Amino acid sequence: MIWSKNCQKNHFRPMTIGIPYRVISYMKGIFANANRIVARAMDTNPHLREEYLDQLFLSSLIGLNRMAIKVPKTSWIIRIDTHFLGSRWMWERWEIADIGLMVTFRHGGQVQRSKVGLLQSKRLYATEIKEPTSENDINPIGFGSLFIPDAEFREETTDRSFTFTPKSEYLQLSYNDHRYKAIRDYERYNRIPIYYLFYNPSELPITAKVPAESKSTRKLNVGCKVISADDVRQVMNQTKISPSYEQLDLDRPHLKIQDFIEDLLLCKKGHIISLPSDEAVNRLFYQRNAPISAVISISIDSPERIEFTETNEAY
């Protein structure tokens, strides 16, 4: 196997030098908009499953698919492509990442460097919900599942309130279960870091009323946050329970998805692909049993060669 460098603690950290602030800011704006769309959906619909939130996140980028964009007031070109494969369990029967981010740096159309960031998504549960959604209910089969029994419809249209607070938990994230172990073992075997993408409402605390009366227009104060699986395990090794927003300390600065994109572009986060061949990445993106559900590809073409340097500074 050809091992790739990764931007983790106690490793040499490659740095991307020379990307203009306008390019980074433009990319952050695109993902900040996606963040806002997903967070506002949670403001009004507290029952959205992670799979639907993933699709909503991807759909916010679909309008840019296969379209080259010249970043305003620069000569830099970006292109964003999305592809949804669907939910499958493929690493010891377990899916490792819901969304894979692939970044390719080019000069004059020629590849200079490629890297990936892998996101496993989890949503915050309202305090009124004590049990996570059953795996058996996540993927109903057939159009017949769209027919809602009378009793279920009456229950779902009854006036209710659901509250999200910093003490609310990510109930689908369970200590030491099969998925928890699979992600840990995948990182150890492949030397590719996994990050958790936590879906949250626009702000905390917040109360969602059902049936919904209007769309949310709230300012984005919380939203989608990203931290490493290693950081999550450190918390859960102490608590031994599903973590809360508060326990994960997600109010720390620079954790929003758009901040993660910035770090990915600057190579403070993620995994650098060893060219011309990287077996671990090939298994991720190019095999039918890839342990991943969806991919967002970001291509950046620069008018001059991008400089990549390395430092032993840990982040």
Please characterize this protein's 3D structure.
The chain is of the alpha+beta class. The chain has one domain (20-129, 151-307). The chain is 28% helix and 25% strand. The protein contains eight helices and twelve strands. The protein has helices spanning 21-44, 50-62, 135-138, 150-156, 178-190, 229-239, 257-265, 279-285; strands at 13-17, 68-70, 77-84, 97-107, 110-123, 160-164, 194-199, 206-210, 225-228, 271-272, 292-302, 307-311. The strands form three sheets. Strands 2, 3, 4, 5, 7, 9, 10 and 11 form an eight-stranded mixed sheet that branches. Helix 1 (21-44) packs across helix 2 and helix 1 (21-44) runs antiparallel to helix 7. The two termini are 27 Å apart.
On the 0 to 100 scale, the average pLDDT is 85
Helix content: 25-40%
Uncertain regions spanning at least 5 consecutive residues: 1-5, 7-13, 311-315
Number of separate helices:
8
Which word captures the global form?
globular
- Give the CA-CA distance, first to last residue: 27 Å
* Alpha carbon gyration radius: 20 Å
